[in-house]
Write a structure and sequence with these properties.
Order of helices and strands: EEHEEEEEHEHEHHHHHEEHHHHEEEEEE
Shape: globular
Helix content: 25-40%
Number of strands: 17
Distance between the termini: 50 Å
Strand content: 15-25%
Strand order of the largest sheet: 3-4-5-6-10-11-12-14-13
Oligomer: single chain
């Protein structure tokens, strides 16, 4: 059986006459998993006195001067400086000399997610899900959940790639979108029926792994495809009218995603707003009053809410400024809307707000997802705002995957594999 990590790790499932699942696992696979995790841990060390050039802007440190920081570099000697990360969840990232990739909304479509990552040159095309990006930094802009049936599998793939990337001197980051916050809130309006199946299967698999979250979660991307195939071959595969099975799926999803649930805690590892070098990444769009409230504060409050922390009543409340309202960080469409119906005055006002925000956060440009762009990845306002949601999921537009690449203060769009080798031509920020 082909495993998610090639032939090093195989899980063989068989069924008794009573339908009970029997799990067989090779110890070789466990050793591989431990080795991979150890490599990543060794590549991340605490910096008590970080280099001054890596510090976040003073005005963004707010009332919280102590930022945890770790550095990621490959085990072998590297020509570039290590990646240094501040904040928990990550808020400011210094990644000198790195190629940065931004991928938009994926909405539960594992096949399209793989196509995008392979096209960008960070995922192997041999079915082994190996990181091929070296010291590249990958940022996914949120909305992995809803509208598709492979949500946990995509999250698993990104976590696996992050472990591998850190061992090579690279990194994988995610920012949470409105569909992540909606699901933690218990809003399942946009959940695909197959996603309920995935939640049920994953909970059973987690039990098979004796509640070892790391083992179950990282390996799930390969196991899920096997189970999905078996499920679709089964005569008992449920449809929309099977209310009993659907109710079980809802209960499983609630268990995983409620504040403090295992999958909600996994999402809590990720920021809502992330700044990498001179670029700021968020799902909907950052506004001046968000920066004034505090970037790190927003990330921390959303993370605490997802974890279900009970330190005080405020930490359990939904962080409104980030997750609710038309102008919240994950819902804002000011920068990504269709501009064909606005006049010059309104257009200038939006540009002014964007410039004020970028100046406040000390960034050159912003990258957002959230609103599908029918023309593909594009930029506006002298390319100070990039819109990277192309609706690639089959649950949205099923469009051709596109990826934004940033390198040495230049940005361009990758639309096919040949673009990886072409020169950066679209925007120069030097």
């Amino acid at each position: 059986m082909l495993s998610p990590f090639g032939r090093l790790w195989t899980r063989d499932y068989s069924f008794s006459s009573k339908g009970n699942r029997v799990k067989k696992e090779t110890e070789r696979g466990r050793r591989w998993m431990m080795s991979l995790t150890l490599q990543a841990m060794l590549s991340c060390s605490l910096y008590s006195l970080p280099h001054p050039q890596f510090l976040p802007p003073r005005r963004l440190l707010e009332a919280y001067p102590s930022f945890p920081a770790y550095a990621s570099t490959s085990a072998s000697a590297s020509a570039v400086k290590p990646i240094v990360v501040y904040g928990d969840p990550p808020t400011f990232v210094a990644a000198p000399g790195r190629r940065i990739l931004a991928v938009g909304d994926l909405h539960g479509d594992l096949a399209q997610a793989r196509r995008a990552l392979q096209m960008a040159g960070v995922l192997s095309s041999d079915g082994q899900d190996q990181w091929t990006g070296g010291e590249t930094v990958l940022v996914q802009l949120g909305d992995i959940l809803d509208r598709g049936e492979d949500e946990i599998a995509i999250l698993s793939l990104l976590r696996s790639l992050d472990l591998q990337a850190k061992a090579k001197g690279g990194a994988v980051f995610q920012v949470n979108g409105n569909h992540e916050t909606m699901n933690v809130e218990g809003d399942f309006r946009y959940v695909d029926y197959g996603a309920y199946d995935e939640c049920l299967d994953f909970l059973e698999y987690l039990d098979d792994c004796e509640d070892n979250w790391e083992e179950a979660f990282v390996s799930w991307v390969g196991i899920s495809e096997i189970l999905k195939h078996e499920r679709k071959l089964s005569q008992n595969h449920w449809g929309p009218l099977n209310l009993v099975k659907r109710q079980k799926g809802i209960m499983a999803r609630s268990t995983l995603l409620k504040p403090g649930g295992p999958l909600a805690c996994e999402l809590a590892r990720h920021a809502v707003i992330l700044k990498v070098n001179d670029w700021v990444f968020c799902h909907g769009g950052l506004l001046p009053h968000h920066v004034a409230y505090g970037v790190e504060r927003i990330n921390r409050e959303v993370s605490h809410w997802m974890k279900g922390n009970k330190e005080n009543d405020s930490s359990r409340q939904l962080p409104f400024i980030a997750t609710r309202g038309y102008d919240s960080v994950v819902w804002n469409r000011l920068y990504s809307r269709d501009y064909s119906d606005i006049d010059e005055y309104e257009n200038n006002q939006i540009h002014s707000i964007l410039e004020e925000t970028l100046q406040a956060v000390d960034a050159k440009a912003m990258v957002v997802g959230h609103t599908p762009q029918t023309v593909g990845v594009n930029c506006k306002y002298n390319c100070s705002i990039w819109r990277v949601d192309v609706g690639m999921s089959s649950g949205v537009l099923n469009s051709r995957p596109e990826v934004l690449e940033i390198f040495e203060d230049k940005a361009r769009v990758i639309r096919n594999k040949r673009d990886i080798y072409s020169e950066l031509q679209i925007a120069d920020y030097t």
